[in-house]
Amino acid sequence: MIRTITMLALSLAFAATGAQAGNVAKSERELVVVSELVTHSAQYRWLYRFMEASGVSLAWETLGSEYRTVYALTGERATLENFNRGLGRLAENGEVKALDVFLHLHGGPKTLYFREGGYATEDIARRLTESSLLPSKLRLAYSTACYGASHAGDLLAGGFEAVSGSRRVNTNGAYDYPAVLTSWRAGETIAVAQDWGNVEFFRRLSDDIASTMGFGDVDSYKDVFGASELTIGSSNR
Amino acid sequence: MNVKYRIIQYLAVIIPSVLFAYFYEPQRKEIEGTFIAPGRNVPSTKPVETAGGGNALDEISDAPAEGEPLAGTELEKIVPDAETQAGLAYVESLRQIPDAAPLIDDIVEYMKEDDGAEFSLDQLDYDENGLAVIDANTNKKMIKDPEILAKWQKLMQLIAANQAQKKADKL
Fold it and tell me: Is the CB of residue A144 less than 8 Å away from at least one CB of chain B?
C-alpha cells in the first residue's frame, strides 16, 4: 500500500513538473545498427564476421517491424565520417523524431573503434554536436562495445537521451543483446530492458567463461545512463 | 470488552506483519538476487564504479589524441585479445541454445573457408553515406549459399524465440 501511494505521489509530482515524455510513433523512429568488428582483428576474421552479421540480422528479426526503417552501417563504410553524415541525413527528415543507434564496435576506455581507427568518445560527441539538428533527434545508444559505460557521458553530451554500456570487457552479448531487444520491443523502459540483459546467471556464466580463458578485466554488467525511463514509444523531447 | 479490543489490536498488527514477511520479503530478495544488482541505472553522467571499487573514468590512459584515429600498428596492440575471447564466449553461449549448436557449427565451418566473398555484410546495397536499408531480403543478399542462408535464418529465429520464451517463463 505504501509503495502504491509512493508511486502515485511520484507520478503526480513527475506530471506536475511538465516532464511528461512525448510519444514517438513507429513512423517517427529509425534505427541504425553500426557493426564493424573484423578490421581490427586479423586473426579470427570468421568470428568477427559472424558477430557483425548476427548484430544486424538479430536487429531485423526482433525490431524490424517496430521501426520506420532499420539501417546498417558496416564494414569499410563504418567510418566516423559516415556515422555523422548518415545520422545527419536521417535527422533532416522532418517526420523523424527519434534516432536509435546500436553500436557493435570494439571499445577501449573512452575510445570507440570505427573502421579507420579509434577515436576518443569526447571527439565523437563533439562531432555530433556540430550538427544543429542531429543532437535533438538522437535518442538511445545501446552499445556492446567493451568499456561502453566509459563512453556514456560523452555520448549523452553528444545528444543521446539514454546510453547503455558495459563496465569493462563485455562478454554476454549472446544473452544480453537479444534480451534487451526483446524487452525494448515489448515497450519496457530501457532500464527494465537492460535489467533483463543483466540477469546475473547468464552474465556471470559468460564472464566466467572469458575469465577462465585467461582474461581478468571482464565485467559485462551494463549501466543505463541518462533517461532510463525511455521506452521505444517515448521521448523526453 | 477491553480484552477483546486488545486482541483485535494485536491481530491488527501481527497479521499484516506475518503476511508481509511471508509474501513480500522472499519476493524482494528473489528480485534483488536475479534482476537488480546495486549500481544499475546510474543517473546522468556520473562516473562508473568498477568492480574493484575504482573509477573507470580515472583509469584511462590510452585514449587517442584529440580528433585523430589511432595508427594501424597501435590498433593491433590495443584491440585486446580479451575481445576475441569474449567473441568466442559469445559463440559458445549461442551453442547452448537448444538446436542451435549444429547450425552454428555448419555456419562457422563455412565462414572459416570463406574469404568474405560468400558471406559478408559487404554484399548489401549501401547509399552514399554508407547506410544500407535492412529488410526481409538482407540475409539473402548477405549469404550466397542457399543452404547456409537457411541455416542462418533458422539460427536467428531460434535466438529470438529462445529469448522470447525465457521472458515468457520469467527464466
Answer: no
